[in-house]
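re: ur question from earlier - yeah i can do the single chain one, its not a big deal. heres the input i used so u can compare w yours
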Amino acid sequence: MGTADGVLGVARGLEGADNFNWTYKIDLSVPGGTLTLNFNDWMWMWMIDERHILNFALMKKVGVNIGKEVIFFKKYASFYEKFG
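and the output i got, formated as tokens:
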């Protein structure tokens, strides 16, 4: 379980052998106001390697898929590798 800015209530997480799944409800700022969405957020750690993670999330409103989010994370070995 966890919390973050914008998350309504508590996020619930499940860990698998090669993934982690968060489900939560969040308020997102949109032009003209706020939109409350249900997120089904998957982090797959096996897809790439020990330095690269792919995060995939589905967004729903009243049970209807309204969007997908894909984020790629890279862990740098050093400051020099990133900025040098």
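Helices lie at 79-83. not sure if urs matches, ping me
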